[in-house]
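Thread: "does anyone have the structure for this chain?"

Original post by V.I.:
We have the sequence but no experimental structure in hand. Need at least a predicted one for the grant figures.
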Amino acid sequence: MISRLLELVSFALSQAFDAIEADWLDTRQDIADELEARGFEPEEIEIALDVAGRIRESLEFDPLPEEMLKSNRVYKFLEEWKLTPEARGYLLGLVTKGRITPQQRETIVERCLSIDSNEPIGEELIHNLTNWVISGDEDELGFYLTRTVH
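Reply from O.Q.:
Generated one for you, tokens below.
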């Protein structure tokens, strides 16, 4: 699911930056029509267009930082869509308290993004993912995700 969503967002962004602000709503509809004609579902298209719109706004209207940021938060917008605020807060708290490293947090988030479900991921699943990432028990993690999500 994540690769399909990334494909949609990529296409939407490529079209979105060609549109001027006044034409964004028309362009958004044109993109949706094109993606629907290619066989994508309306729910997927809406998510991709929302993510593309937020990225577009962020890049166009946010001032650029004066110095290089030390971050690899590539999936920020997808993370906000996939994880509940409570789940994101729980992970941030673990990093702040030093219970997990920022790299482990990224691993957990990437695992969450790979779960093929339209339901947001809450604190309980994040707690279990965190325990398995810390313990390194990958076999148990895969079994748990298969049972939980499907």
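V.I.: this helps a lot. The radius of gyration is 17 Å.
O.Q.: and DSSP finds eight helices and no strands in the chain.
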